[in-house]
UniProtKB/TrEMBL annotation:
InterPro entries: DinB/YfiT-like (IPR034660), Maleyloyr_isom (IPR017517), MDMPI_C-term_domain (IPR010872), MDMPI_metal-binding (IPR024344). Keywords: Isomerase. SUPFAM superfamilies: DinB/YfiT-like putative metalloenzymes. It comes from Nocardia callitridis. It holds the Pfam family MDMPI_N. Residues 14-159 form the Mycothiol-dependent maleylpyruvate isomerase metal-binding domain. This is Maleylpyruvate isomerase family mycothiol-dependent enzyme. It comes from the Bacteria. GO terms for molecular function: isomerase activity. The keyword Ribonucleoprotein does not apply. The lineage of its organism: Bacteria, Bacillati, Actinomycetota, Actinomycetes, Mycobacteriales. Residues 176-268 form the MDMPI C-terminal domain. Signal peptide: none annotated. The keyword Isomerase applies.
Length: 278
């Protein structure tokens, strides 16, 4: 069961994250708004439109009506669309694309301001209430931590697209990374096909430096350490780890930035199969 995080921690971090996104795109000209992002088919404009769409849905709103003067996009036919959540994301983005960057930015400000007010007014019962989310039925509070992670990683997407540097550590990043890291044991067992009995260590350097030990038995799970040496130890920057897990890049593009000690075959298979959020 996904634990419900502390409301007094997550709400301020989420609103700070919305502010960070706003600062990153404020003042962009129309060409920069349409800069391709690391996400298939999405520009910087589309990333912000996605956030607008998701937060609007959480306010109970539906996508704008389709403009009959535009060709209707078959979003289900897009190569990167694999589930119903992705379908709804693409509908929102497609309906908002005719806007200018300035108009989208104004809409983003208006929607996130209303979401901030809604979260501020939410009581403990509402925070704990079970609700559908992209990762299944969880508490509303747990969903908001998912939203924090989503918006945080989109800040990295936009920064990478525009060639800008942003702070990748700090409280927002720590909380977002905690959400991201919950899936890693399952990913190494399922996608990375780590065999039962595997002892795997990820040594992360950089702004979110930490060491993650994963033991694979009937289920893969984090452990404090191993009595024996790990079968494989993988060292890389925390930012690269997140981008690999997010499917934003591939291990083959960063071979010199990844160190594998021990079972190299297993290590290479793991780093090539970390993507799970795209």
């Amino acid at each position: 069961m996904t634990p419900t995080p502390d409301r007094d921690e997550i709400v301020p971090l989420l609103t700070e994250q919305w502010d960070a996104l706003a600062k990153l795109v404020a003042g962009l000209d129309e060409n920069r708004w349409r800069t391709p992002s690391p996400l298939p088919g999405w520009t910087v404009f589309d990333v912000i439109a996605h956030v607008v769409g998701t937060e609007s849905m959480l306010l109970g709103e539906k996508p704008p009506a389709h403009d009959p003067n535009r060709v209707k996009t078959d979003v289900r036919g897009l190569a990167h669309v694999h589930n119903e959540t992705a379908v709804l994301n693409e509908i929102w983005i497609d309906r908002l694309r005719p806007l200018s960057g300035d108009r989208l930015f104004a809409l983003y400000d208006e929607v996130t301001e209303r979401r901030t007010a809604a979260l501020t007014q939410l009581d403990a019962e509402g925070w704990a209430r079970q609700t559908p989310s992209p990762i299944g039925q969880i508490s509303y509070g747990a969903f908001m931590r998912v939203r924090l992670f989503d918006c945080w990683v989109h800040e990295l997407d936009i920064a990478d697209s525009l060639g800008r540097e942003v702070e990748e550590g700090g409280p927002r990043a720590e909380a977002a990374f905690a959400e991201f890291a919950r899936s890693i044991p399952r990913v190494v067992a399922k996608r990375g096909e780590a065999p039962s009995g595997s002892r795997i260590t990820f040594v992360l350097t950089g702004p979110l430096a930490r060491t993650l030990h994963i033991a694979v038995a009937e289920r893969a799970s984090y452990v404090d350490g191993f009595d024996e040496q790990a079968n494989v130890e993988i060292t890389m920057d925390s930012g690269l780890f997140v981008r690999l897990g997010g499917g934003r890049t591939t291990a083959d593009e960063h071979t010199e930035q990844i160190s594998i000690t021990g079972d190299e075959q297993l290590g290479e298979r793991l780093v090539r199969n970390l993507a799970f959020t795209i």
